Amino acid sequence: MRFHILTFGCQMNVADSDWLSQALISRGWTESAEEDAQVFLVTTCSVREKPEQKVYSLLGRLKGYADRDPAVFVGVGGCVAQQIGEEFWNRFPFVRLVFGTDGTAMVPQALERLVEDPALRVSLLDFLDHYPEREQPEEGRVGAQAFVNIMQGCDNFCAYCIVPFTRGRQKSRSSDAIAAECESLVRRGARELTLLGQNVNSYGQDGHGDGTTFASLLRRISAIPGLARLKFTTSHPKDIAPEVVAAFGELPNLSPQLHLPVQSGSDAMLKSMGRKYTRERYLGIVRDLRAACPHIALTTDIIVGFPGETQRDFEDTLELMRQVRYESSFSFKYSDRPGVRAEKMNFKVPEEEKARRLAVLQDLQNRITAEELESRVGAEVDVLVEGTSRMQDGAALFWRGRDGGGRIINFPSPLPDLTGKMIRVRILAAKKHSLTGETRGEPW
Ligand code: 5AD
Ligand code: SF4
Asked: Which is the closest atom of ligand 2 to the Cα of 161?
């Protein structure tokens, strides 16, 4: 069978799609272009209004393929599937499979049954009370960068967030299973691993793990011979342990970067969002991180226009951004999500005001990003090469990769294939969102 996967949303969805693709290929299916596919899989996101709308317009497009060939069908997974469930079958009859995150492990078998029996529909939406292990391929080369799930779900119920409803309660995966997958990936060619979870800092604290803390998991994975880089996402500030902060100064292959969503710089907003930390506590964590690792690159998520946010609250957020000086940030206008606490809150901020605040904030971030990038000029950094660059200027071939802080770096090299290699680069100039440089020495 020929399949095509379309992925929306977070890195967890990207990792789920990668696994689905591998699992189907190992069953003899082939990945094809959209026009040639017999089966489509869509991993969906409902965290904000915009990504959710994108899913619906995509399904509108896929309907065209199903109209032309009735054997073509679609499986919809992820957060929108969990939310809408079997109602999908009424709205989009060519959708014959819906699956939530806990159901992903069973998708390959379900697809085989659906191909055999054209009258069948399958729903895999139940939440399980343990982390559902997936079959792991033991053979075959993998790319230089790989993602490893360490947990599923979230228990925090931040007032704006739909994730605890769509992904269920937090469930940690056993540390032995995580270590075995990481070791296998490094053996098969991975140089960089990213540990994934909705809130990795509370790994092991949900009664489903094996007593291992996140700090000790980091130490265990970091020690895998041949692992050049270790990263993790996402962190909740309220749960980051001092041992994890210290790890940035202790583990040589732990990348000096951290995505630490702050959401707002106003104590009043943090309180009504239910974030369980204050601005001062957050800034304290930032100070400790910089004491442990002076060049750590910090990034964040920010919501503007949360219900009740005043101009003063918003200015607190701008001031916090000036203090922390994030390398970059993802910022969003608050949008109502069905069933979350904030949906029922008073004092909603008008759409135009949210848009204005977002523009002001993004303008400030762009200036900080430019200054931070400029300050890297002259530095020598190790770059993990991801492929050829879009930036080509005729003479030598340009390559694109990232330094330990996650910054994008373009550089020319006449070497035939650098993809997946590490190479030392001296930074020569800063562009708006990236750096350019020249190589020093041989790749490894
Ligand atoms: N409205 C706007 N942004 C949201 N996020 C989550 N829920 C909402 C919402 N209802 C943002 C948060 C989170 C990121 C993944 O998406 O900033 O960290
Ligand atoms: Fe949503 Fe908060 Fe959980 Fe993050 S920690 S997934 S923002 S509820």
From this structure: 1
Q: What is the distance of C-alpha 43 from the center of its chain? A: 13
What is the model's pLDDT at position 135? 87
| Count of domains observed in the chain | 4
CATH code assigned at 335? 3.30.750.200
pLDDT of residue 416: 85
Compute the distance between CA of residue 260 and CA of residue 324 in angstroms, rounded to an integer: 11
Q: Has residue 191 been placed in a domain? A: yes
Which atom of ligand 2 is found nearest the CA of 236?
A: 5
Q: What is the pLDDT of residue 401?
A: 97
**Joined tokens for residue 249:** 């100064």
Please give the distance, rounded to the nearest whole angstrom, from the Cα atom of residue 336 to the centre of ligand 2: 15
pTM above 0.70, yes or no: yes
Q: Is residue 143 situated within a structural domain?
A: yes
Question: What residue owns the CA closest to ligand 1's atom 18?
Answer: 301
Could you tell me if 219 and 199 lie in one domain? Answer: yes
Domain residue limits at 215: 136-255
pLDDT at position 317 is 98
Residues of the chain whose pLDDT is less than 70? 394
Helices 311-324 and 279-292, axial angle in degrees (round to 10): 10
User: Alpha helix (H) ranges present in 39-150?
Assistant: 49-68, 79-84, 87-91, 107-116
Nearest CA to ligand 1 atom 13: 301
Can you give the CATH number for the domain in which 390 is found?
A: 2.40.50
Residues 240, 349: one domain? no
Which ligand neighbours the alpha carbon of 329 most closely?
1
